[in-house]
Design goal:
The complex is a heterodimer of chains A (256) and B (405). Chain A has 256 residues and is an alpha/beta fold. Chain A has twelve helices and nine strands. Chain A has a single domain, classed as Alpha-Beta Barrel (TIM Barrel). In chain A, strand 1, helix 2 and strand 2 form a beta-alpha-beta unit. Chain A is globular. Chain B is built from 16 helices and 14 strands. Chain B starts with 20 loop residues before the first strand and ends with a helix. The chains are: A alpha/beta (256), B alpha/beta (405).
Chain lengths: 256, 405
C-alpha cells in the first residue's frame, strides 16, 4: 500500500493538502517548508515545480514561481534538495507543475528520479488525457507513481467518469472555473460537490482553488475527503520572517 | 462545402490530424479548466466555418468592410534592384492596416454563432488587438485586449485606436511584458470566464483547433495570390512566397494554398533581433527546442531547464518565443526555408521599400523584405512577398532611426 492509499484508508475526511513552491521563499527552504507543513498537520504536501509561464495559476502563485526561479531553482536542484528527504518527511508528497520543464528534463528521467526519492504522485495540469493514454501514462505507471487528474464544474459527467478511471491517488476537484487564488461564491461549489458525491467515484476527492481559510476548508470537506490550500499559504510565507512559526500559525488557523 | 478532418496519424501540411498534430507538433496541452471551451470550438469550428450563411457573411465583410481582395502589386523598381520579378501582396491595404482583420472577422462571427457575448484577445504590435476591437465595435460586442506593458509603450498609436474603438486594453505586467505574457493573461481570463467568452487568438498558435482555424481564416491571402498571379503572369504558381513569422499567421495565410505545390519555395523569415547569437533574438527555429507553450507542442525558445526565455525583436509582432506548430512542421520537414533578419536589416529594408516603391511597411513585414538580400533569384523568377501590414504604427521607431543617420 502506498502512502496515499494508506492515508485515505486511515483518514476519510478533512484531509489537508497544502501547496508550496519549491525554492520559495528561499532557494534552500524547500525541505524546511515541507517539514513545517508536516509538523503542523498537513496530510499531503503538494510541491510546485516552478515555471516561467504557469497558466492555471493566479498572480500570487505565479509570483512565487518567478521568485523561486530568480532564487536559482531548477528541476535538477529540486531532486538534489529532496535526496534523503524521506528521513524526515513521511507524509505523501505530490509534485505539481507544467509539462514543459518535465519534457526538457526528460519525461522518463523525471519519473525515475521522482520514484527513487520517492515522491508519491504527479500532477501536470497541462498534460491532457489523450497524451497520457497515448504515451506518458505507461511511463508513469512503470515507475509506480500516481497521476492525479483535475476535474472542474465544466467537466461533463461522462468525462468525470473517464478521468476518475485514469486517475490514481485521488481526484483533484477544481472548485470553480478559475485560476488559483480567485474568489467565487461557495454555495455554487457545494452544489457541485454534492453532485460529485452522488456519482460514486473510485477516487477520493480533494477540492482545490478558492480554499483559503477554516470556513472554506470545512465547507469543502463536508462533501469531499479533503481540500488543498495554496494561494493563502504562499501569501503567509511571503510575509514570514520565520517559516516554522508562520506555518504553525497558518495551519492552526485552518485546523483548530 | 463542409470539410472534415481525416483521422490520419501525422496530419498533412494543410490539415492537422484529429488531435491537432502537424507531424510532431501541435496538440492541445491545456488544463482541464479550458477543456470544455476548447472542445466546443474543436467540435464546431469546421461546421460553422463552412456553413453557407457563415461564408456569405464572412465573404461580404472581407469584401465590403476589410476591402478585399487586396492588390497584388508588381514592384518594378524593387524587382530591378534584385534582378527578378517581385510582387507584393498588399495586406497593408486592409481596413485597420494588416492581415489580422481576416482572422478577427472570422473568429468574431464564429463566436457569435457559438452564442458568446464577450471577446478577449492578446496583442503584440497591436494590429490584432485593433482588428479585434474593430470587429467588436462593428458587432456591438464587449472587447478586452491584453497587451504587454512594453508593447503598449512602443505601439502607442494602436493602444489609442483600440481605446477609441471601445476596447479595454489591459496591461500584462508579468514576465517580459510582451506578447507571451499578454497571451498568458488572456488564457487566464478565459479560464475565469468559461461560459460567455470567446478568446480570439491572433496567430496560428494555441491549442488545437486554433492553429488550423486561424490558418484557414488567413488562407484567403494565398487564395487571392493564386488568382491574381494567374491573371498577371498566366500561371497561378510563383517560384517563391516569402513572409515574416512571429507566431506565423500571415505566413500561414500566404503559404496555405501553395503547401501542396512543391515547386513553390516557401520562405519564412524570423526576427533575429540584435543577431541570432546575441542573446537578444526571436528566431525560434534557430534558438528553440521542441516544447509546449500556450497549449501546443512546437519549437520554443527556452532554457535547458525548460523555462521560456524572453525574446527580443524591434518588432513587437515578432517578439514571441514560439512559433505555430504548422511552421515547426514546415521547418522540421524542410517544406519551408527559414531565414532571419536583424532589427537593423529590417529597418533598412523598410526605408528601401519606402524609397523604391512609396510604401511604408510595418516593421514585421520589413523582415520578409530584408531577407531578399539573402536570396539568389533568377531573372524570370516570380517572387511573392506578403506585405502583412503598414508602417504607421512604427513611425516613432523609423523617425528615431532617421535621426540617427
Amino acid at each position: 500500500m502506498n502512502r496515499l492509499e494508506e492515508l485515505f484508508t486511515r483518514k476519510k475526511s478533512n484531509v489537508l493538502n497544502v501547496f508550496c513552491t519549491a525554492g520559495f521563499p528561499q532557494l534552500n527552504s524547500t525541505w524546511e517548508v515541507m517539514k513545517a507543513l508536516q509538523d503542523n498537520g498537513a496530510d499531503i504536501i503538494e510541491l510546485g515545480m516552478p515555471y516561467s509561464d504557469p497558466l492555471a495559476d493566479g498572480p500570487v502563485i505565479q509570483a512565487s514561481n518567478t521568485k523561486a526561479l530568480q532564487n536559482g531553482m531548477t528541476m535538477q536542484l529540486l531532486f538534489e534538495q529532496l535526496r534523503d528527504f524521506r528521513k524526515e518527511i513521511y507524509v505523501p508528497v505530490i509534485l505539481m507543475g507544467n509539462i514543459n520543464p518535465v519534457l526538457q528534463f526528460g519525461f522518463e528521467n523525471f519519473c525515475k528520479q521522482a520514484a527513487s526519492l520517492p515522491v508519491d504522485g504527479i500532477i501536470l495540469p497541462d498534460l491532457p488525457e489523450y497524451e497520457f493514454e497515448n504515451e506518458y501514462g505507461a511511463i508513469i505507471k512503470r515507475y509506480g507513481l500516481d497521476f492525479i487528474f483535475l476535474i472542474t464544474p465544466e467537466t461533463s459527467e461522462e468525462r468525470i467518469k473517464k478521468l476518475d478511471t485514469l486517475s490514481t491517488g485521488f481526484l483533484y476537484v477544481v472548485s470553480s472555473s478559475s485560476t488559483t487564488g480567485n474568489k467565487k461564491d461557495f454555495t455554487e461549489v457545494e452544489k457541485y460537490l454534492q453532485r460529485l458525491q452522488n456519482m460514486q467515484l473510485k477516487n477520493s476527492l480533494i477540492v482545490g482553488f478558492g480554499i483559503k481559510d477554516k470556513s472554506t476548508f470545512q465547507s469543502a470537506c463536508k462533501y469531499a475527503n479533503g481540500a488543498v490550500i495554496g494561494t493563502a499559504y504562499i501569501k503567509a510565507l511571503e510575509n514570514a520572517t520565520d517559516i516554522q512559526s508562520a506555518t504553525k500559525a497558518f495551519l492552526s488557523s485552518i485546523i483548530n | 462545402m463542409v470539410q472534415t478532418i481525416i483521422p490520419n496519424n501525422k496530419g498533412t501540411y494543410k490539415q492537422p490530424n484529429i488531435f491537432g498534430y502537424y507531424g510532431n507538433f501541435g496538440g492541445a496541452y491545456i488544463p482541464e479548466m479550458l477543456h470544455r471551451n476548447v472542445e466546443e470550438l474543436r467540435d464546431n469550428y469546421l461546421k460553422i466555418m463552412y456553413d453557407e450563411a457563415f461564408q456569405k457573411e464572412f465573404q461580404n465583410l472581407l469584401h465590403d468592410y476589410a476591402g478585399r481582395p487586396t492588390p497584388l502589386f508588381f514592384a518594378e523598381r524593387l524587382s530591378n534592384q534584385f534582378n527578378t520579378k517581385i510582387y507584393l501582396k498588399r495586406e497593408d491595404l486592409n481596413h485597420t492596416g494588416a492581415h489580422k482583420i481576416n482572422n478577427a472577422i472570422g473568429q468574431v462571427l464564429l463566436a457569435l454563432r457559438l452564442g458568446k457575448k464577450r471577446i478577449i484577445a492578446e496583442t503584440g504590435a497591436g494590429q490584432h488587438g485593433v482588428a479585434t476591437a474593430t470587429v467588436c465595435a462593428l458587432k456591438g460586442l464587449e472587447c478586452i485586449v491584453y497587451m504587454g506593458v512594453k508593447d503598449m509603450e512602443r505601439q502607442q498609436p494602436n493602444v489609442a485606436r483600440m481605446r477609441m474603438l471601445g476596447a479595454e486594453v489591459r496591461p500584462a505586467t508579468s514576465g517580459s511584458q510582451t506578447l507571451k505574457d499578454a497571451t498568458n493573461e488572456a488564457i487566464r481570463d478565459w479560464i475565469n470566464n468559461p461560459n460567455d467568452t470567446h478568446y480570439v487568438i491572433g496567430s496560428v498558435v494555441g491549442p488545437h483547433p486554433y492553429p488550423d482555424m486561424v490558418a484557414r481564416f488567413q488562407s484567403v491571402i494565398s487564395e487571392e495570390i493564386k488568382k491574381q498571379l494567374k491573371e498577371k503572369t498566366g500561371s497561378e504558381l510563383p517560384n517563391y512566397v516569402m513572409a515574416c513569422v512571429g507566431g506565423g499567421s500571415n505566413a500561414a495565410g500566404a503559404f496555405y494554398h501553395f503547401l501542396d505545390d512543391l515547386s513553390v519555395q516557401l520562405v519564412a523569415v524570423e526576427a533575429a533581433g540584435c543577431g541570432i547569437n546575441s542573446g537578444m533574438s526571436a528566431a525560434t527555429t534557430q534558438l528553440g527546442k521542441p516544447g509546449v507553450l500556450h497549449g501546443s507542442k512546437s519549437l520554443v525558445m527556452q532554457t535547458a531547464d525548460g523555462q521560456v526565455v524572453e525574446p527580443h525583436s524591434i518588432s513587437a509582432g515578432l517578439d514571441y518565443p514560439g512559433i505555430g506548430p504548422l511552421h515547426a512542421h514546415l521547418y522540421e520537414s524542410g517544406r519551408a526555408k527559414f531565414l532571419s533578419a536583424t532589427d537593423k536589416e529590417a529597418v533598412e529594408a523598410a526605408f528601401n521599400l519606402t524609397k523604391m516603391e512609396g510604401i511604408i511597411p510595418a516593421l514585421e513585414s520589413s523582415h520578409a523584405l530584408a531577407a531578399l538580400n539573402q536570396m539568389r533569384f533568377k531573372k524570370d523568377d516570380v517572387v511573392v512577398i506578403c506585405l502583412s501590414g503598414r508602417g504607421d504604427k512604427d513611425m516613432s521607431t523609423y523617425m528615431k532611426y532617421m535621426n540617427e543617420l
